[in-house]
């Protein structure tokens, strides 16, 4: 069985939705199709939710009206016949009645998460009815029947697998099973989600849960590029990546994949293929456990919104147990550390979740002098076994000779070198590395 995931832009226009029906039909065997919300929808729902939480009901209603109009136009173009126009109209009305019902009640975080789930719920229904109109046999399998996260917001892969396998096996007479990306239930059995961009993660969790042959992520670009195409002009697609390389790139900001996508696939060794909906002939990128070219630079990614914390303490010198106590502070606040460097009298580390920064700072104060730098960017340079090659660091630092580097991390794994720069130098750094490491200008 194959899992095919189509992102927001791949379902965002009626003609694109029709196109993905073709792509699904062209894939032999039984498959699970995971859909995102239409592009722009989740952003719109976030805006509506934020306004409702802030008590701005009129503003939320204005945005709801605009979103509803968008769907009205969408269904007019998606369906050909009168009877399916009526079905589309019924679906849109039902969703927007529900959204307004949520808005009218006591709107809290639980309601907010229910609101965010509507994007994927509506896109999958609209697609299912499109297949119905074309007399293509398919089933809708609600993700809320099987997709769950625990009290730490971590997906429960084994439970997902136990629920999903019998559900899929029960659908014997059908090759196309459609489900929602992104949405799930939490440990209170409420509707929740896998965080922004989470449909990729859904696809990978499903692929791992059913031990699929392959997980295909269909998006608006021809695979993972060697650098961020939103920032660097000349970038090129990479044909092969290892799970480790792809994982680093996703975690460190390559938006094409949700940061955790590779984890479940890697666990059960299910290949992940990245493909372009707009150019299906393009080879894309295949991500597997097999080693690809060793020793050369593969790609660069950048992650913004990083906070660097420096703890300077004369007592740290020779004090065993010091780092453990520092790490405990972060653990107690459920805040993970990305980069870390130490000297005899100081330790610098970075976090990307600054929700608990004030409490963390207060607790760290007892260890010494604390300095905090916000708006930093981690730039991650990836390639299998690059750290074992001669001259790699020289090449990286020659490229970055005009840029002040705040921290460096090398040696944690053999496949990446990370540097921390102020966000204002990100664009310059990515372009300089593109030229220095890949000869692309
Ligand atoms: P989808 O809606 O299909 O999930 P996303 O917008 O989440 O699509 O991801 C695709 C986008 O990721 C591309 O359009 C591209 O701008 C961006 N991107 C960032 N870094 C990379 C990279 N290294 N390779 C390819 N795309 C990247
Ligand atoms: N619709 C969700 C988002 O925009 C999930 C996704 O598209 O992957 O974040
Ligand atoms: Mg995405």
What's this entry about, in short?
The chain is an alpha/beta fold. It folds into 2 domains: 2-220, 3-Layer(aba) Sandwich (Carbamate kinase); 297-438, VC0802-like, CATH 3.30.2130.
Characterization of the model:
- This protein is α/β, with parallel strands linked by helices.
- The chain has two domains: 2-220, 3-Layer(aba) Sandwich (Carbamate kinase), CATH 3.40.1160.10; 297-438, VC0802-like (2-Layer Sandwich), CATH 3.30.2130.
- It contains 14 helices and 16 strands.
- The protein has helices at 8-11, 14-25, 41-53, 57-78, 82-104, 109-133, 157-170, 199-209, 243-251, 262-267, 322-332, 357-364, 392-399, 426-438, and strands spanning 2-6, 31-35, 139-140, 176-180, 183-185, 191-193, 214-219, 240-242, 272-276, 285-288, 299-312, 337-342, 346-351, 369-382, 407-410, 416-422.
- The chain has an eight-stranded mixed β-sheet, with helices on both faces.
- The longest helix is centred in the N-terminal third of the chain and has 25 residues, at 109-133.
- The two termini are 41 Å apart.
- Residues 7-10, 36, 197, 219-221, 224-225, 228-230, 254-256, 301 line the site of adenosine-5'-diphosphate.
Give structural attributes.
VC0802-like, alpha/beta, binds magnesium ion, Carbamate kinase, globular, binds adenosine-5'-diphosphate, 441 residues, binds aspartic acid, 8-stranded mixed sheet, 6-stranded antiparallel sheet, 16 strands
């Amino acid at each position: 069985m194959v899992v095919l995931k189509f992102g927001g832009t791949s379902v965002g226009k009626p003609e694109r939705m029709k196109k993905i029906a073709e792509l699904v039909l062209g894939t032999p065997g039984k498959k699970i199709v995971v859909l995102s919300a239409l592009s722009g929808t989740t952003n719109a729902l976030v805006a509506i939710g934020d306004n409702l939480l802030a008590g701005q009901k009129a503003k939320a209603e204005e945005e709801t009206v605009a979103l509803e109009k968008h769907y009205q136009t969408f269904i007019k173009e998606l369906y050909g016949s009168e009877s399916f126009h009526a079905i589309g109209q019924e679906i849109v009305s039902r969703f927007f009645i529900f959204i307004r019902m949520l808005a009218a009640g006591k709107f809290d975080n639980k309601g907010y998460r229910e609101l965010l789930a509507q994007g994927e719920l509506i896109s999958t229904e609209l697609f299912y009815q499109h297949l119905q109109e074309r007399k293509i046999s398919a089933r809708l399998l609600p993700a809320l029947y099987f997709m769950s996260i625990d009290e730490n917001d971590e997906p429960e892969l084994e439970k997902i697998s136990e629920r999903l396998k019998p559900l899929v096996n029960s659908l014997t007479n059908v090759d196309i099973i459609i489900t929602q990306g992104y949405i799930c239930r939490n440990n209170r059995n409420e509707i929740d989600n896998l965080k922004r961009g989470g449909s990729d993660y859904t696809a990978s969790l499903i692929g791992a849960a059913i031990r699929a042959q392959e997980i295909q992520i269909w998006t608006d670009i021809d695979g993972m590029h060697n650098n961020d195409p939103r920032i660097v002009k000349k970038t090129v697609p990479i044909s092969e990546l290892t799970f480790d390389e792809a994982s680093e790139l996703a975690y460190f900001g390559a938006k094409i994949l949700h940061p955790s996508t590779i984890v479940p696939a890697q666990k059960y060794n299910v290949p992940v293929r990245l493909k372009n909906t707009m150019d299906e002939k393009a080879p894309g990128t295949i991500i597997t456990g097999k080693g690809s070219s060793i020793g050369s630079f593969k790609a660069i990614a950048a992650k913004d919104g990083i906070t660097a914390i420096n703890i300077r303490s004369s007592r740290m010198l020779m004090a065993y147990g010091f780092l453990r106590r520092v790490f405990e502070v972060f653990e107690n606040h459920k805040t993970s550390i990305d980069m870390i460097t130490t000297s005899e009298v100081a330790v610098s580390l970075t976090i990307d979740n600054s929700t608990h920064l004030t409490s963390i700072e207060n607790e760290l104060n007892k260890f010494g002098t604390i300095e905090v730098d916000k708006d930093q960017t981690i730039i991650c340079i990836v390639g299998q076994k690059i750290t074992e090659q001669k001259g790699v660091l020289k090449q990286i630092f020659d490229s970055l000779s005009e840029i002040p580097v705040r921290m460096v991390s090398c040696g944690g794994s053999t496949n990446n070198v990370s540097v921390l720069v102020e966000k204002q130098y990100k664009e310059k750094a990515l372009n300089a590395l593109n030229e220095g490491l890949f000869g692309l200008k």
